[in-house]
Design a protein that fits this description.
Length: about 375
């Protein structure tokens, strides 16, 4: 049997019963592929199930408010994916009468869809013989062919696309592409690959050489930047101050408590963090606070940086210094000062009761701040 035949036979018996595999509806495959970008399968599955109940088809998604879409995405991260889904749904309704197009180039032209995702949708939803190369497939191909060309160098990537395309059996793209990804996810793992039960072990050069974990090869390891940040929960007359991140910025369209980046690759003492935070809230919001109540510390890990977010509470309950000016409006208003004090920008603010938090989409870190607010705090 050929490598492709062995892999297809294995996939037929061992594939996971994923919900979008039931009918291979283009809409289902599209949503699953976007959710799976930069996100693990176990994390995606419950989000996918909830999403389908709220937005079962393209028209429902297009007719929904962006705020509701972002709320459904809350906690998945990389929120531009949700905004792009909503934008694309509107475009499909407007230009394609609500029917997901099958043409590869049309799919590729949609916002937030690159070559891999367009190929995945084309092959999985429409069974078109289009190659796809994700992290799992890169790892499998690197080991099968013992490829020493570093995968993080752009000029080396066409090699993997060409190899994958040649392996696709005619009429079997839907299953073969998924089989390669499934093999990488379940058998050909990054560490301790299960070579003993791998269906394509006889074809694997890295296994024959006895060094599968040396693949894929990378040219260099990127060092993570360490960020220290602080967020301030401002409370006034039972309401909390939120601000809306502008569209076009990272996590645009999400609401958050006022937050500032304080340092990069430099450790700050707690006293200095509080001192800087008190100055920033005075400069940006006119609140002349003298003390802060610590609520907790939240760690955020991204591809290229790790952040520690220190969260404090300041109950601006009337009467001193700039507190009145900070609470001057309980309506949405514009503030063109930069929260970091480094450049002007437009930012919307809103005072709301805590019972309204469920209506606003937060990033995962600020959703944790909501929980910190709700948790009873110990008194000393």
């Amino acid at each position: 049997m050929t490598l492709s035949a062995k892999l297809l036979a294995w996939f037929d018996k061992n594939q996971r019963p994923l919900p979008w595999r039931q009918h291979y509806r283009p809409y289902d495959v599209w949503i699953s592929e976007i959710m799976l970008q930069q996100t693990q399968m176990n994390t995606v599955l419950p989000y996918y199930e909830r999403w389908m109940k709220q937005f079962p088809d393209v028209r429902t998604l297009a007719d929904s408010d962006l705020k509701k879409v972002l709320k459904a995405w809350e906690g998945l991260g990389y929120y531009s994916r949700a905004r792009n889904l909503h934008h694309t749904a509107l475009e499909i309704v407007r230009k394609h009468d609500g029917i997901f197009p099958s043409d590869f180039q049309t799919i590729h032209d949609f916002k937030g869809i690159g070559r891999y995702t367009a190929g995945a949708i084309s092959s999985i939803a429409f069974n078109q013989e289009m190659p796809i190369v994700d992290g799992n497939i890169l790892r499998v191909l690197s080991r099968v062919y013992a490829i020493k060309a570093p995968i993080d160098i752009e000029k080396n990537k066409p090699l993997f696309w060409e190899l994958e395309e040649k392996l696709i059996p005619k009429g079997k793209a839907r299953y073969f592409n998924q089989a390669l990804m499934e093999l990488g996810a379940l058998i050909c793992s990054t560490e301790n690959p299960s070579c003993a039960i791998c269906p394509i072990r006889p074809f694997c050069q890295a296994y024959k050489n006895g060094d599968p974990e040396n693949y894929p090869v990378r040219s260099k390891k990127v060092k993570s930047i360490k960020i220290t940040a602080a967020a301030l929960v401002l409370k006034n007359k039972g309401k909390y101050l939120l601000r809306l991140r502008p569209l076009g910025e990272i996590m645009g369209g999400l609401w958050e408590f006022p937050e500032w980046k304080l340092s990069k690759n430099k450790k700050l003492s707690l006293s200095l963090i509080q001192k800087r935070l008190l100055k920033l809230v005075g400069d940006d919001y006119g609140i002349h606070a003298t003390s802060l109540e610590p609520l907790g510390v939240i760690k955020r890990n991204y591809t290229y940086f790790n952040e520690i977010l220190h969260v404090y509470l300041h109950p601006a309950t009337g009467g001193t210094g700039g507190e009145a000016s900070a609470a001057r409006s309980e309506e949405l208003h514009e503030d063109r000062r930069s929260p970091a004090g480094d450049r002007p920008r437009s930012s919307q603010h809103l005072w709301i009761h805590s019972n309204k938090f469920s209506e606003y989409p937060f990033s995962s870190a600020h959703a944790k701040i909501v929980k910190l607010i709700s948790e009873p705090r110990r008194t000393k």
